[in-house]
Structure formats: C-alpha cells, structure tokens
Amino acid sequence: MKILVCITYVPDTTSKIAFTEGDTKFDKSGVQFIIGPYDDYALARAVELKEAHSGTVTVLNVGEAETEPIIRKALAVGADDAIRVNAEPIDSFFVAKQIASVAKEGSYDMILMGRESIDFNGGMVHGMVGELLGLPSVSPVMTLEIEGNKAKMSREIEGGKEYLEVDMPFVAGCQEPIAEWKIPNMRGIMSARTKPLQVVEPVDSDKATVLDKYELPPSKGEIKMIDAENMEELVKLLKNDAKVL
Questions:
Q1: How high is the mean pLDDT of the chain?
Q2: How far apart are CA 73 and CA 61, in angstroms?
C-alpha cells in the first residue's frame, strides 16, 4: 500500500500576524511555522495504516527550502520519504496541479491531506486534486478504515453522520478524530535525518487568482457589562446597539 500525505507550512496559531509592502505580503519575521494541524491528523492516520497493512508513506509539500524542517518532522513521525515541489504555493489550484502531477507519477493507493490549511482555510485542494486525477474525493473524513481494495469512511453532515465506501485510489481531506497526533521520539528524529527528501521543480500552471491585499479583522469593540438582573437593559442594547434582535 502506497500512501501520499500532503502537508502545509503554516504559522503557529499563537503567532502575531502582520503584513508588509502595502498589505500585499505576509510578514514572516519572528513567526513560528508548523505542519498544518489537519495535515497532522492525516499523517498520523497514514502511519497507522502503513503499520497495519505493510505499506509506505510519502510526504509531499509544495514550498520553498524554508519548509524542510517541517518535512523532516513528518519523516520523524513515521513517513518513509518525502518530496518537496520547489515553488511558492501561489493558490489552491496551483498547489492542486503540483500534487496531481506527483501523484500521477507515484501511482499511490490513497492521497491524504488535511481538510483545509489554517492560514487560508480554503478547503478546496482535495476536491481539485480528485478532479484532476479523476478520483473520488471525500472531506471532511473523520474515520478511515481499509478492507481489501476498499476504503470505508465517515463524516459529519447536517443532522447526523454519513458513511461512505470507495475503491482505491481516492483522495481524502482529514480532520479529528481520525487519529491522534503523533509526537516524534528520539529514534524517529535521528532516522529522519537520513530518510530521502527529493526536490522537484513545479509543473506549469496558470495563475487562477490575483491577490489584491491582506486585511486584519477589525479590533474588538468596547465591552459593556450588564447586571444579571437588568434584563430590560440587555434587551435594549441587543436591539439598538448590537442590532441582533
């Protein structure tokens, strides 16, 4: 069984975000970067499936050289090898084209990734990859089991859960509780240094989007404290100030 896990290089959720060059560039100064949390779930489940079915896990990242520390971390968690497409991840379609190109050459049984990245939260790449490869794409996948050549998955839908079964190969966007995050141990960290990391150049792709500017969300407004017994005043504020009634 060959599994491809796609990981993103995103700011830690505690990072302070700022922009430069007229709010057209993300300021990376002093920012700690991590593997996308949803990608961590996909990676953890991939490692479990590899161990259960005697497979291999390849990690793929579309990014420049600065992303290699998180790739090495993924190798330390349990991936066998890695591929880095040497390009800035311009937009979702560009990234999907790169993933599809690598996947075609590797003939993988499944392509796992997070349901979305936590920087842009687009949640589009898995669907695009599935379309480009002509494969079924399911998201957000919360459980994943393999029986023979079939994958059995579940996901939450409005009002309940949906259970699906697809033939391999397929694409899945993962989220908790598909697996528990794995913390690399010392042995994994040491072995990751010698695991192969292949760098490939990107395939040509039209730029599907144009960035105008970034904008931070508005700062929080003044907080008004209302006495618990003063229901009339609370209703008045919700109606006249907040305009939610």
A1: 92
A2: 12
Q: Distance between alpha carbon 213 and the CA centroid of its chain, in Å?
A: 23
Domain ranges, residue 192 = 2-209
Q: Are 78 and 188 in contact (CB under 8 A)?
A: yes
End-to-end C-alpha distance for the chain, whole angstroms: 56
Four-point Cα dihedral 227, 230, 231, 232, nearest 10: -130
Residues facing residue 199 across a β-bridge? 84
Please state whether beta strands 170-174 and 110-114 pair in parallel, antiparallel, or not at all (unpaired): parallel
**Unique residue bearing structure tokens 């049984």:** 109
Q: What is the pLDDT of residue 62?
A: 97
Residue 92 CA to residue 147 CA, distance in Å, equals: 31
pLDDT surpassing 90 at residue 226 = no
Q: 24 by DSSP, 3-state: which?
A: coil
CATH number of the domain bearing residue 189: 3.40.50.620
93 falls in which pLDDT band (50, 70, 90)? very high
Torsion of CA 175, 178, 48, 150, to 10 degrees: -100
Domain contains 225: no
Instruction: Kindly indicate the confidence band of residue 242, based on its pLDDT and cuts at 50, 70 and 90.
Output: confident
Q: How many CB atoms lie within 10 A of CB 69?
A: 12
163 inside domain: yes
CA angle 189, 194, 195 (to 5 degrees): 90
Residue 175 maps to a domain = yes
